[in-house]
């Protein structure tokens, strides 16, 4: 991930009407708290998204029901899951189906809050499929690249939330290494 | 001749052929009922495509990559089928290769019966429409619910899809509101798009929760991992797969690609090509059985994820249904590259006016449907709508895998022509008139148009008698009845002196070869030579003003008209004759300047198929559109002073400075449309370019009684754009000129007539 990718990514999300909050992993819970409606269900970080998230300081707020019943899922307004990858050029997030329920929790709700590490942003689609290929072959992963909310124009106008979420919020966890790196200066960004 | 045309219009067509009349009636009805909604949507998608692909770096390279992947995959198809069977089975799923629809349905019914399924939910898939699985399951009392909102609306209304990507585009919001009110009688009937969508989401959500079986199609399948790609925006495919424990995916065998990495270019192209979205909201890559827990909505105090492995069952039903045979058919094989993006439908002038219900076969619709239906259902089904392709070729650059869709239509039309040949219909007098290479019994209208070059020569020789006769009431009535030539359309008037005769009479070239910068042959195409001689003279004058040694030899027709009628052998013979006539000029290093854009497009596109590649390339390289040639001469230092620039000064003259230009559809496809604009601007004109794909006339099309109204409707946006312009209207194509003449009541000129020095 380069800084340019992160800024392309957030710009694309902005075009899609997706709200983005960026901060260090320590602030994850606060950012999710601000983004989530009520009631909220979720999948614990690390069980959803990359394994590295399990050991990171990033957590979900207590009010997120992380062991939901199907009734909880039905009643939920917001679902919180992590994404394994972001695709800068398209503002897409890669959600991986897992036994803990990332797929239903990100789908059967009105608002989806996605937690993504900046480090997991790749520039473009070919990179995303280079990442996916080996995992599909070796681990039989199921991944949906989600770009903005669910949408339809079938009923005579563009409407969000046809079957899936009406809104998407992204909580972007700043990459600590990059934060210390030489590129992370306002000048470098201005050059882009 | 106009008085006759008016009279004709007043009386309406008098087609006595019942098929023709029924077709005309059906088109009229669709124009009236669905035309507006279809037009708005398809034109919106088409504009979106231009915008979205325009933003994409390396669009052409991506198309080439996509095409190469499909070529390779279809080549290796049998191996890929074996490979995907192994990978899917290693994952715990099942693969069934179904020979045809009945075989596929039998298998799917067995699965449903084994699982005791009472309801199946289905995400939109053309392949499942193709096999009509809903009916098959309904016969076993399985309730099949479409979950795509558009598809569900059609299911409620008991209608067929009218578009392969957006099946219900022909239905207005009001019509959907009415339908819901009628079917569900809700207390508070939904009306806005938002309310209607939420109403559908809720209803469908409940139905999905209780479903036993989930069905989807697949946009692509990677053989190396058994991963399938599903492209949607609504999320219904995701819900269909997640909420049910048995997933049946149906897909044509042609959906296989070797590896997951090869999904990538298609992901970037499919949404952009179809609806102008950079990507659709959801791109699912599933390597089933999927890992998500199966939510048990029936006992909802259960934990969503109970820790146990999901008990999921997956069946991939790969469907042959004629595809493997299409692979061995040089023409139809291209169809298998199709990724069902709908760009060809959206780019099509005729489709924009009437939509898939006029354009459809049993399952597929739009331009490429001819290939699909010919391969899957047979020629009879393809024949029903094959005629609607006018060969304008605007779908060719739109297609992300570079399929030459008009060629498939031409080749299939040729097969239909041959298949329907009935020697008893042979008319000896007619045979004299149309000395073509086709079997007897072809529809007379087809033959008349296909032999236009002969007719025009004959008309010219006998003008003005022919003109008077051709447009006399009784003859028009007869032409309409026998050949389906609509009498509301003015017929071209033949010139007494052809271009070639004029050129000889003036003493040949005015610029001697030894003083010339270049030598060129102006190609006297049939229309220029015998009908619109003025544009030919203007071309000669313009080139001479720029120092070119010009010749106008007597040369045969290009084969374009027979090609438009699917008379491939006749067109091929014409190509050979014309090449023989041009060869000495090519040998002498002369350029070939072409006035009629459809002829240039024929040289550059179709001759590849008729001539040895060396010859076709040689001709393609040496031939130029007239305005392209002028532009090139100016670029290379020719003095523009010899050409007519807008006159400065007073009064209405200023209007001569302002041009409204309609580039010809085929000229745009071969990318020469913009030279006229560039040349005009260079000379100081102010140009406004039309933004329609096609004027709707396309050669013979608008002459036929069945299509006259459609043709006029397709031209409507052009009339809206240029109808009350005070600009000088120019159009290089013969048929565009005729169409614009009819629509605007002002005969446009060829661009070169504006800039050529006065004769
Ligand atoms: S033929 Fe080409 S443009 Fe038409 S649907 Fe198929 S892929 Fe798309």
Automatic annotation (TrEMBL), chain A:
Query: Where's the LUD domain?
Result: 63-173
InterPro entries reported for this sequence = FTHF_cligase-like_sf (IPR024185), LUD_dom (IPR003741), NagB/RpiA_transferase-like (IPR037171)
Q: Mind telling me which residue stretches traverse the membrane in this protein? A: none
Query: Can you tell me which residues the record assigns to a coiled coil?
Result: none
PANTHER family documented for this protein: LACTATE UTILIZATION PROTEIN C (PTHR43682:SF1)
- Mind telling me what this protein is named? LUD domain-containing protein
Q: Which organism is it from?
A: Halorubrum ruber
User: The organism's lineage?
Assistant: Archaea, Methanobacteriati, Methanobacteriota, Stenosarchaea group, Halobacteria
From TrEMBL, chain B:
Could you tell me what this protein is called? LUD domain-containing protein
Compositionally biased, Basic and acidic residues: which spans?
17-31
Region annotation (Disordered) maps to 1-51
From what organism does this protein derive? Halorubrum ruber
- Keyword annotations: 4Fe-4S, Electron transport, Iron, Iron-sulfur, Metal-binding, Repeat, Transport
Q: Where is the signal peptide?
A: none
PROSITE patterns hit by this protein: 4FE4S_FER_1, 4FE4S_FER_2
Entry-linked Gene3D superfamilies: Alpha-helical ferredoxin, NagB/RpiA/CoA transferase-like
Q: Which residues form the 4Fe-4S ferredoxin-type domain?
A: 379-408
Q: Which SUPFAM superfamilies has this protein been placed in?
A: alpha-helical ferredoxin, NagB/RpiA/CoA transferase-like
Which Gene Ontology biological process is one annotated for this entry?
lactate metabolic process
InterPro entries cross-referenced by the UniProt entry: 4Fe4S_Fe-S-bd, 4Fe4S_Fe_S_CS, Cys_rich_dom, FTHF_cligase-like_sf, Helical_ferredxn, LUD_dom, LutB/LldF, NagB/RpiA_transferase-like
Does the keyword section mention 4Fe-4S? Answer: yes
Q: Name one GO molecular function term.
A: oxidoreductase activity
């Amino acid at each position: 991930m380069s800084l340019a990718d992160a800024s392309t990514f957030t710009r694309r999300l902005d075009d899609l009407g997706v709200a983005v909050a960026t901060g260090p992993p320590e602030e994850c819970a606060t950012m999710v708290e601000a983004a989530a409606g009520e009631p909220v269900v979720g999948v614990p970080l690390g069980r959803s998204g990359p394994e590295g998230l399990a050991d990171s300081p990033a957590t979900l707020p207590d009010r997120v029901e992380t062991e939901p019943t199907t009734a909880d899922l039905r009643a939920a307004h917001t679902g919180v899951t992590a994404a394994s990858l972001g695709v800068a050029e398209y503002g897409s997030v890669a959600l991986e189906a897992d036994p803990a329920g990332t797929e239903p929790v990100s789908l059967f709700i009105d608002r989806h809050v996605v937690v993504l590490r900046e480090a997991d942003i790749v520039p473009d689609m070919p990179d995303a499929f280079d990442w996916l290929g080996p995992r599909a072959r070796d681990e039989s992963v199921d991944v949906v690249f989600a770009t903005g909310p669910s949408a339809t124009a079938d009923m005579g106008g563009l409407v969000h939330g046809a079957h899936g979420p009406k809104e998407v919020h992204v909580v972007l966890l700043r990459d600590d290494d990059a934060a210390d790196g030489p590129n992370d200066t306002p000048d470098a960004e201005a050059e882009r | 001749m106009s008085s006759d045309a008016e009279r004709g219009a007043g009386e309406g067509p008098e087609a006595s052929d019942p098929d023709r009349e029924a077709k005309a009636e059906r088109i009229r009805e669709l124009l009236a009922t669905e035309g507006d909604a279809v037009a708005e949507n398809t034109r919106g998608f088409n504009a979106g495509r231009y915008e979205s692909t325009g933003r994409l770096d390396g669009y052409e390279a991506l198309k080439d990559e996509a095409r190469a992947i499909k070529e390779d995959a279809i080549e290796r198809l049998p191996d890929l089928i074996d490979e995907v069977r192994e990978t899917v089975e290693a994952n715990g799923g099942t693969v069934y290769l179904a020979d045809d629809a009945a075989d596929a349905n039998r298998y799917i019914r067995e699965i449903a019966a084994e699982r005791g399924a009472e309801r199946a939910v289905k995400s939109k898939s053309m392949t499942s429409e193709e096999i009509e699985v809903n009916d098959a399951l309904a016969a076993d009392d399985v309730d099949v619910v479409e979950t795509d909102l558009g598809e569900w609306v059609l299911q409620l209304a008991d209608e067929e899809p009218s578009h392969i990507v957006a099946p219900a585009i022909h239905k207005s919001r009001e019509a959907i509101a009415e339908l819901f009110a009628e079917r569900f009688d809700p207390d508070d009937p939904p009306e806005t798009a938002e309310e209607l969508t939420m109403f559908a989401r809720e209803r469908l959500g409940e139905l999905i929760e209780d479903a036993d079986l989930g069905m989807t199609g697949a946009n692509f399948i990677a053989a190396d991992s058994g991963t399938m790609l599903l492209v949607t925006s609504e999320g219904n495919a995701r819900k269909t797969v997640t909420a049910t424990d048995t997933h049946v995916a149906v897909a044509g065998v042609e959906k296989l690609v070797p590896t997951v990495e090869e999904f990538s270019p298609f992901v970037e192209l499919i949404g952009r090509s179809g609806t102008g979205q950079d990507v659709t909201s959801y791109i699912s890559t599933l390597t089933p059985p999927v890992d998500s827990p199966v939510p048990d909505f029936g006992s909802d105090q259960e934990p969503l994820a109970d820790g146990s492995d999901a008990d999921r069952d997956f069946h991939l039903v790969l469907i042959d249904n004629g595809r493997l045979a299409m692979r061995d058919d040089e023409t139809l094989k291209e169809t298998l590259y199709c990724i069902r993006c709908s760009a060809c439908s959206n780019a099509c002038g005729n489709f924009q006016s009437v939509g898939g219900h006029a354009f459809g076969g049993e399952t597929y619709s739009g331009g490429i449907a001819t290939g699909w239906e010919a391969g899957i259902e047979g020629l009879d089904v393809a024949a029903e709508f094959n005629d609607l392709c006018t060969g304008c070729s605007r779908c060719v650059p739109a297609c992300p895998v570079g399929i030459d869709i008009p060629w498939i239509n031409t080749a299939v039309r040729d097969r239909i022509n041959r298949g329907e040949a009935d020697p008893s219909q042979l008319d000896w007098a007619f045979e004299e008139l149309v000395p073509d290479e086709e079997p007897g019994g072809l529809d007379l209208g087809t033959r008349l148009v296909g032999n236009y070059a002969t007719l025009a020569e004959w008309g010219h020789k006998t003008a003005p008698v022919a003109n008077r006769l051709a447009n006399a009431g009784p003859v028009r009535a007869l032409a309409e009845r026998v050949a389906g030539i609509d009498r509301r359309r003015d017929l071209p008037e033949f010139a007494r002196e052809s271009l070639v005769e004029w050129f000889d009479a003036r003493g040949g070239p005015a610029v001697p070869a030894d003083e010339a910068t270049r030598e060129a042959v102006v190609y006297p195409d049939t229309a220029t030579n015998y009908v619109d001689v003025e544009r030919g003279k203007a071309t000669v004058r313009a080139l001479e003003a720029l120092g070119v040694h010009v010749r106008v030899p007597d040369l045969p027709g290009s084969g374009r008209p027979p090609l438009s009628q699917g008379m491939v052998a006749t067109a091929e013979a014409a190509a050979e004759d014309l090449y023989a006539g041009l060869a000495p000029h090519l040998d002498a290093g002369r350029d070939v300047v072409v006035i009629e854009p459809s002829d240039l497009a024929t040289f550059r596109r179709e001759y590849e198929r008729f001539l040895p590649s060396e010859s076709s390339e040689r001709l393609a390289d040496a031939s130029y559109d007239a305005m392209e040639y002028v532009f090139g001469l100016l670029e290379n230092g020719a003095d523009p002073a010899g050409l007519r620039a807008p006159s400065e000064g007073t009064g209405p003259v200023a209007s001569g400075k302002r041009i409204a230009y309609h580039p010809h559809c085929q000229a745009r496809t071969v990318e020469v449309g913009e030279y006229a604009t560039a040349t005009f601007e260079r000379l100081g004109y102010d140009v406004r370019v039309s933004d329609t794909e096609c004027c709707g006339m396309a050669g013979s099309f608008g002459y036929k009684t069945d299509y006259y109204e459609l043709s006029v409707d397709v031209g409507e946006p052009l009339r809206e754009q240029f109808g009350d312009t005070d600009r000088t209207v120019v159009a290089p194509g013969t048929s565009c000129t005729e169409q614009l003449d009819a629509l605007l009541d002002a005969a446009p000129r060829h661009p070169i007539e504006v800039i050529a020095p006065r004769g």
